[in-house]
Amino acid sequence: MTRTPLRLTPVAIPPPAPNPKGMVQSAAGILLDWDGCVAHDDIPHVAGLAFLRRYADKIAIVSNSSTLWPSDIQEVLAGLGVVLPTERIVLAGHHALLLAAQRGLTTTVLGTPHMRALARQLGVRQVTMDPDLIVLLRDTRFTYSRLKFAINALASGARLIVANPDLTHPGPKGTLAPETGALLAALGACVPLDRISVEVLGKPYPHMFQTACGALGLQPSQVLMIGDNPLTDIEGARQLGIPALLVSPGSALGLEQLC
Ligand SMILES: [Mg+2]
User: How far is the CA of 215 from the centre of ligand 1 (A)?
Assistant: First the structure.
């Protein structure tokens, strides 16, 4: 059974808001994307850092990252003088592992050693043979043998939790970095994913938006989403009635205009 669509469908890019800075200032809370919005290669850019410093008190980071712990981003920000509690850093990989820990099933995590260490810390029951659950993160060491292992586990009845449906994200110097959704497509090329249990977290699905609103103690109608991806940041916000601003360096609206 598939609970969420496995592919994102194109959406119309919203028209520019007439008073974006006013929206930022009047919002009780701000849900802020990380990669491509305030940071590149996990380091905030100049405008991103200025924005974080100005509005830190009402910001929750909401990112589809599945290679970072919340504390990783917290430490980067702390080193730049921005204090954000880990509860207000909502990351897809972390939430996929939290869900796996709740399920309590024997689990194989397809992800980096860093994320498998987080799985251990969260109490995920990790096994290397015959798992009842596969957690798919952005596994930068994905190989033919891992693909073979995963598809045979799924064909034998294992469930699947996927951190996010993204195919790529912006890499350094204008390059593309394959994302978790690309690995999901590889699994889907081998086994019929519509016939097994697949749960996809991450934007644009509601779970992380709702978690971030909860961390801020606010309702969706009280917050503003800011991100650089119309398919995930903007469309996901729209589905929950959260007003949203599309920003990216070099486009009509950048964070430097919102500080
Ligand atoms: Mg982004």
Answer: 20
